[in-house]
Amino acid sequence: MAPEYYSATYQGETIRSRYPIGKGLLCPICRSLLASPRIAVCGHAFCSSCVNKWLTSNTQCPMCDSDISNAKPTKSKLLSEIISSTELVCAGPPAADGSSCTALLTVDTKDAHAETCPYILNPPTPPPVRLAPAGIRMGSKKSPTTQTKKQRETKSSDGKVQQPSAAEQALEASRKITRRRIEEMKRSQNIPVSNVLGIKLDM
C-alpha cells in the first residue's frame, strides 16, 4: 500500500510531507507554506511578498482586522528555521513498476534534488489512448447494424432461436424499403445500384 502524504504549495510549487503541515506555517493570504515569513504587530504571520502587497491597498490584518499599517511587519527567525527544517518528500511521480523516490528533503534542498532525481527527470509515459472504430463504443460489442440476420438470431440455452428485437426488425424493414426504392431508381434511370446515393448495399 502506497504511503499517505500531505500536500501543500510553496512559492507556486507543490510539496509533499509525511506529516500534516500546521496551519500556523501557512500564509493566510496565499494559503501556501510561509516564504520569508513576516509577523505583523497583531502577531499573525504572512509571506513577505503577500503582506507587502496587501498593505498597498489595505490597513487592517486579514485575520483579525487590527490596524497593521503603522508598523512594518518584522522578520521571524524562529518561523524561518521551523520552515527550513520541515521534512518533505520528493514530489516526483512513481515509476511504472510502482516504486517511488524515498529521499527526505527540506525546502532548502528540494530544488537541488529535483535536478538529479530520476523520478522527476524521467516520469513514466502514460499508456496510449485506444480509440474505438467508428460506430462502435469502447467496451461494447459491435452495433447490430453491422451484423447479419444470422448473427442476430442467436440460440438461447434451451436451443430455441431468439428472434430479433422490435428495433432490429424495424431496421431490417427500413433496409428492404431502401433496397426496393434503389432498384426502382436503377430500372427507371438505367444506372448501377452502387452509384445510387453513393452507397453499396448487400442485396
Please give a structural write-up:
With 203 residues, the protein is an alpha+beta fold. It is built from 6 helices and 7 strands; from the N terminus they run ββββαβαββαααα. It folds into 2 domains: 6-121, Zinc/RING finger domain, C3HC4 (zinc finger) (Herpes Virus-1); 144-198, no CATH class. It has helices at residues 48-54, 77-84, 110-114, 118-121, 149-152, 166-189; strands at 6-10, 13-17, 37-39, 45-47, 74-75, 88-89, 104-105. It has a 3-stranded antiparallel sheet. It has a two-stranded antiparallel sheet with strand order 1-2. β3 (37-39) and β4 (45-47) form a beta hairpin. The radius of gyration is 35 Å and the shape is elongated. The two termini are 60 Å apart. The relative contact order is 0.08. The model has no long low-confidence stretch (mean pLDDT 79).
Structural descriptors:
203 residues; alpha+beta; 2 domains; three-stranded antiparallel sheet; 26% helix; elongated
User: How does CATH name the architecture of the largest domain?
Assistant: 2-Layer Sandwich
Helix content: 25-40%
According to CATH, the fold-level topology of the largest domain is: Herpes Virus-1
CATH class of the largest domain: Alpha Beta
Tell me the structural class.
alpha+beta
Query: What form results from the Cα inertia axes?
Result: elongated
Read across the widest sheet, the strand sequence of neighbours is: 4-3-5
- Note the beta-strand portion: 5-15%
Average of pLDDT: 79
Number of strands: 7
Instruction: Report the total helices.
Output: 6
Q: Oligomerization state of this entry?
A: single chain
